[in-house]
Design goal:
alpha/beta, FAD/NAD(P)-binding domain, 2 domains, three-stranded antiparallel sheet, 15 helices
Length: 512
C-alpha cells in the first residue's frame, strides 16, 4: 500500500535496515494521496496537485523498489505475495497497509458511481464531488452529509458539514441552503468511543451556531435520486420512525470491509475481511506478517443501537507504523517486541475526554476540547500538518543540506531583481502574527539597515523575510527525526497559544 500508512512504513523500515536489505513497496496506485484533504478538494479549496503526486521518484531516491501492481493473494505459508499480473514476490517480513474497501453495496444507491450522492474516499471521487458542487451552487437546494451504519471514520463527516457551511457563507448562499448531518451515532460526538463529556455539548453548540441540523441514531436504508431514506432507532435499539430527506447535493461516508485479496488467505482476516493482529500488530497465524492503518481489525468499544465502527486517525495510524517498524527490527535482531496497546489506550483515552477535537482529525491530534471553538486557529494548524506530512513524504535523502541556492539567497536575489525591474521599490511593511524582539550585534544591525536601504525595503520587513528564509535553510540541516521533533514542537506551540474566546467553528475563506 502507498498511502498514509504504507509510505511512512517503507521509509522508516528502510532507514533502519542495513544497506544490503531490500524494501519493496507494492501499490495499484501510482500516486500518493493525502486522503484527509479530500474533503477540501471536494469543496474546491485544494487542487489535485496539492494533495497527490507520483510516489515512485521519492521511493527510488531512498532506495525503495516500487512495483505498480495490485495485490491478488497472499501465500503466507510460502512467504510470497501474488500480484494482479500473476507475478510473485518473496518476503521475509510483510507489512499490510492496503487500506480497506468501501462497502457501498450495504446501502442501496450509496455507490457514487450511481450518481445520487458523492464520496471523498478516493481522490477521483473528491474531484467528481467538486465538479458536482460547482453545478449545485448555480441552483442550490438541500444538502445532506451522512454516514452509513458501521462507519468508523466519523470526524471527516463533521468536518465536511462545516466546510460546506463555510463555503456557502463565502458565496453568500448559506441562507438558501439547509444542511443536515445524518449519523449512526446515538448522539453527536460519540465517535465510536461512547464517553459522554463536554464534547457532546460543545459540538452540538457548534452545529447549532452554524445552523446545521444533526440527526442521530439513523440507519440509512436506501438512497434514491433526490431522497435519503432513513430509519431511526431509540437508545434501546427499537425502531421508532422512518423518514425521507430530500436533497440536491449529498456526500456520504460508507462502512468499510477488507479488500478481497486478503480474505483469500485462511487465518489472516476476521469475518469483515480486516487483518487480525496481536498487541504487537502481527497476525497470530503468520507472525512475520504485520498490519497498519485502516485494514487492521479493531474492536468496537461501546454497543450502539445502530452500528458505529471503532475510530481511527492519521495520528493513531502513525503510532501503528512506529510499532510495526520497531517490531520488525526487533524480530531481525531477535529482541523482544513492543506492544501497541499502551499507545492506543492513551490515544483512545484522549479521544474519549476531548472527542470534539476529532473534528480536526485525522489531520492533527488536537488534545484540548476548547480548541474546537477556535476555528481559524484549528484550520491553520491543520493546513500546517497537511504541508508537514506531504513535505515529509517528498523529502529526499540529502536534501536537508543547504546548497548555494539557499532560501536566503533566493530572497535577496528576488528583492534585487524587483528593484532593478522597477527602478525604485515601494516601502514594504512586515505582516507578522506576533512581534519578536531580538537583540543583534551592532554590526549586524548596521548591515541590516544598510541592506534595507540598498534594496529600498522596510527594515522590519526585510528582517522578517530573512529570518523566515534562514529558518527554512536551518531546517534543511536536520535529519528526519529532528524534523519530526521540530514539527511536533511547532504544533504544540500553536495549540498552546490558541485564543479562548472565538465562538463557533469557522473556516475563514479558502483552504490556505
Amino acid at each position: 500500500g502507498a498511502g498514509i500508512a504504507g509510505v511512512p512504513a517503507a521509509y522508516a523500515i528502510k532507514n533502519r535496515l542495513g544497506p544490503n536489505d531490500r524494501v519493496t513497496l507494492v501499490s495499484d496506485r501510482a500516486d500518493f494521496n493525502f486522503v484527509p484533504s479530500n474533503p477540501w478538494l471536494a469543496m474546491g479549496w485544494r487542487d489535485r496537485a496539492d494533495i497527490a503526486f507520483p510516489i515512485q521518484p521519492y521511493l527510488e531516491a531512498r532506495g525503495i523498489h516500487f512495483v505498480a501492481q495490485g495485490l491478488a493473494r497472499i501465500h503466507a505459508t510460502s512467504n510470497q505475495v501474488e500480484l494482479t499480473d500473476a507475478s510473485r514476490l518473496h518476503y521475509d517480513y510483510l507489512v499490510l497497509a492496503v487500506g480497506s474497501a468501501p462497502a457501498y453495496d450495504e446501502v442501496e444507491g450509496m455507490d457514487p458511481a450511481q450518481g445520487y450522492v458523492h464520496a471523498v474516499v478516493h481522490i477521483e471521487q473528491a474531484i467528481e464531488a467538486s465538479q458536482a458542487y460547482k453545478e449545485f451552487v448555480k441552483n442550490p437546494g438541500p444538502i445532506v452529509i451522512g454516514a452509513a451504519a458501521g462507519c468508523a471514520i466519523l470526524g471527516p463527516v463533521y468536518e465536511t458539514a462545516f466546510l460546506v457551511d463555510a463555503d456557502l457563507r463565502r458565496r453568500g448562499l448559506r441562507e438558501r441552503v439547509t444542511i443536515t448531518l445524518v449519523t449512526p451515532e446515538p448522539y453527536v460526538a460519540h465517535f465510536g468511543i461512547g464517553a459522554k463529556t463536554e464534547t457532546q455539548r460543545l459540538l452540538e453548540n457548534a452545529l447549532a451556531d452554524r445552523g446545521i441540523v444533526s440527526m442521530c441514531n439513523m440507519k440509512t436504508t436506501k438512497i434514491t435520486p433526490g431522497h435519503i431514506h432513513l430509519t431511526q432507532y431509540d437508545l434501546g435499539g427499537k425502531e421508532i420512525a422512518q423518514t425521507t430527506l430530500p436533497f440536491a447535493f449529498g456526500i456520504y461516508a460508507p462502512a468499510y470491509r477488507g479488500i478481497a485479496a486478503l480474505s483469500r488467505t485462511p487465518g489472516l482476516t476476521d469475518a469483515r475481511g480486516m487483518v487480525t493482529v496481536d498487541e504487537y500488530l502481527r497476525n497470530p497465524a503468520y507472525p512475520n506478517v504485520y498490519a497498519a492503518g485502516i485494514c487492521v481489525a479493531q474492536p468496537s468499544f461501546a454497543p450502539t443501537p445502530v452500528p458505529v465502527g471503532p475510530p481511527e486517525s492519521v495520528y493513531s495510524i502513525q503510532n501503528q507504523v512506529d510499532t510495526v517498524t520497531r517490531n520488525i527490527i526487533a524480530a531481525i535482531k531477535k529482541e523482544a517486541p513492543a506492544s501497541a496497546l499502551p499507545q492506543r489506550a492513551k490515544w483512545l483515552s484522549d479521544l474519549g475526554e476531548t472527542g470534539a477535537a476529532h473534528l480536526a482529525e485525522p489531520q492533527i491530534p488536537l488534545r484540548n476540547i476548547n480548541r474546537i471553538k477556535q476555528g481559524r486557529w484549528v484550520h491553520l494548524a491543520k493546513v500546517g500538518f497537511e504541508q508537514y506530512f506531504i513535505n515529509k513524504i517528498k523529502l529526499k535523502p540529502g536534501e536537508h543540506a543547504p546548497s548555494v541556492a539557499s532560501h536566503v539567497a533566493t530572497t535577496v536575489q528576488h528583492l534585487q531583481s524587483e528593484k532593478e525591474a522597477g527602478g525604485t521599490q515601494a516601502t514594504r511593511t512586515a505582516t507578522v502574527a506576533r512581534r519578536l524582539d531580538i537583540a543583534v550585534e551592532r554590526d549586524a544591525n548596521y548591515e541590516l539597515r544598510a541592506l534595507a536601504k540598498t534594496l529600498n525595503v522596510d527594515e522590519k520587513a526585510i528582517a522578517a523575510m530573512l529570518l523566515n528564509a534562514a529558518l527554512k535553510d536551518a531546517k534543511r540541516y536536520l535529519d528526519e527525526v529532528a524534523l519530526a521533533d521540530m514539527e511536533q514542537a511547532r504544533r504544540d506551540l500553536i495549540l498552546a497559544e490558541l485564543p479562548e474566546n472565538q465562538p463557533g467553528v469557522e473556516f475563514h475563506g479558502g483552504g490556505t
